[in-house]
Amino acid sequence: MTYSLATQPMFNISKKNPSFDAMLAGIGARAKEAAATLGRAEPGQRTRMLEIAAGKLAAREGNILAANANDVRGAEGQLSAALIDRLTLTPPRIKSIAAGLMAIAGQPDPVGRALEEWTRPNGLKITRVATPIGVIGMIYEARPNVTAEASAIALRAGNAIILRCGSHSYESSAALAAVMREALREAGLPEDAVQLVPTTDRAAVGALLKLADCVDLIVPRGGRDLVERVEGESRIPLLRQYEGVCHVYLHAGADLKMAASVVHNAKLRRTSICGAAECLLIDHAVLDVVGATVVRDLLNSGCAVRGDEAVQKLDTRVAPAAPQDWGREFLDSIIAARAVDGLDEALEHIRRHGSGHTDAIITHDEAAAKRFCEGLDSAILAVNASTQFADGGEFGFGGELGIATGKLHARGPIGAAQLCSYKYILNGNGQVRP
After folding, report:
1. Which of 105, 244, 392, 419 is geometrically suited to a Cys-Cys bond with 397, CB 3.0 to 4.6 A?
2. Distance, C-alpha 291 to centroid of its chain
């Protein structure tokens, strides 16, 4: 399959290409072969490839922006403002992607690490060693930056990746995938370690989910409908990423200045990301002063607030919250807000309506913060910090495949280390089992 920085031609079923199953089977076979080579490569070779890719992003910026402009034009009138923001690439965002690739390149190579070792009474030494997972299947929607970031993270850990982007980000993703493939080739590594599925037909998703003999892990990154479809159809293990219904709880021990600053950032820094706060819980003990100040700040900053009766009384601009507003991912300048009677009621609300992504408490009461963190099982819990730190770059990972909200294999930001499995190596001097 040939990639160029021009628009990647779409795949159509024809006599030459009889089915999506056949197309994906070919992609999967090439990815499996590439993964075997990549996983055995020297760490320095994978590092060099990432450095080359970061440099090429700057050199190809014009091509990438032109492709992205086509995607944005095609999405206008079809996507919300928040999703258009996710789709849009700018020179600063491309520079940020390149910086992320350099950060990933600068990390210790995770492959081959001795994770744990011990010696048995019989002298047998056992070592648990990190290994690549193999082939990652990534299904995502209108976020073209995922193409470069997910590829870099997978490659750092010695994995091949098959990318299936959404229709609205296709041209941008093709341009970014071409950069990654060029970098692989120049570093002497198999370019099929990164492959973009050359169609946006939904049937290709089903075909990808059948490739259990080639693909080792599926990572869906998108809305509820996408994740539920993948969960229902996949024959391959799944790294679950659910929507970000993130809460901020203003505890009775919340500081006014801190609460206003953190909530403003958690909601409004960038409303379209999964770490944006979607629900504000205010303890009755601080409702009239801290709560009122925070709510007014949000309203004055252009954020719509949908509140219960107690929150509506704080400002006439607060609209009544509907039942469906609790547990809703707005991805926009909208937040649901309610007053609660203490920490237990806040925990109960989050358990009922949260998605297990990221939740925060604002308080100077260390005991309350400890109970909050012990009482919730979200992938990320923040104490006196914005929910928007739910990001692989902010964790020092250089980027992320996404935020895993499930409980198996990896949780929270998925970096290169989280895309490793392990094997056991036994070293003896002739031991036999009695």
Report:
1. 392
2. 31
* Phi, psi of 384, rounded to the nearest 5 degrees: 55, 40
Q: Which amino acid is at 387?
A: T
H/E run at residue 432? none
The DSSP bridge partners found for residue 420 are 132
List, in sequence order, every residue forming a beta bridge with 306; answer none if it has no partner. Answer: 319, 336
What residue has token string 């995770």? 110
Do residues 28 and 162 make contact, with C-beta atoms less than 8 angstroms apart?
Answer: yes
Q: Which of 168, 110, 174 is nearest to 148 (CA)?
A: 174
- Count the neighbouring beta carbons within 10 Å of the beta carbon of residue 393: 18
Region 84-92: mean pLDDT is: 93
Average pLDDT over residues 370-389: 96
pLDDT at 3 over 90: no
Query: Hey, what CATH topology would domain 246-389 get?
Result: Aldehyde Dehydrogenase; Chain A, domain 2 (3.40.309)
**Model's pTM, two decimal places?**
0.85
DSSP lists the bridge partners of residue 248 as 280, 360
- Cα separation, 70 vs 174, in Å, equals 12
Q: How confident is the model over 96-140, as pLDDT tens digits? A: 999 999 999 999 999 999 999 999 999 999 999 999 999 999 999
Beta bridge partners, 219, equal 138
SS (H, E, C) 315-358: CCCCEECCHHHCCCCCCCCEEEEEEECCHHHHHHHHHHHCCCCE
Domains 20-239+414-425 and 246-389 share a fold: no
- Structure-token pair, residue 261: 């600053």
Domain ranges of the chain: 20-239+414-425, 246-389
- Residue 134: DSSP 8-state: -
CA–CA separation, 329 and 356 (whole Å): 13
Answer whether 226's CB lies under 8 Å from 208's CB: no
Read off the tokens for 10.
């779409």
* Nearest CA-CA partner of 142 in 82, 219, 62, 58: 82
Is 71 within 8 Å of 170 (Cβ atoms)? yes
State the CATH class of domain 20-239+414-425.
Answer: alpha beta
- Residue 364 pLDDT > 70, yes or no? yes
* Range name among 111-115, 340-344, 391-395, 405-409 with the lowest pLDDT average: 405-409
User: pLDDT over 70 for what percent of the chain?
Assistant: 96
Are the beta carbons of 54 and 105 closer than 8 angstroms? Answer: yes
pLDDT tier at 13 (50, 70, 90 boundaries)?
very low
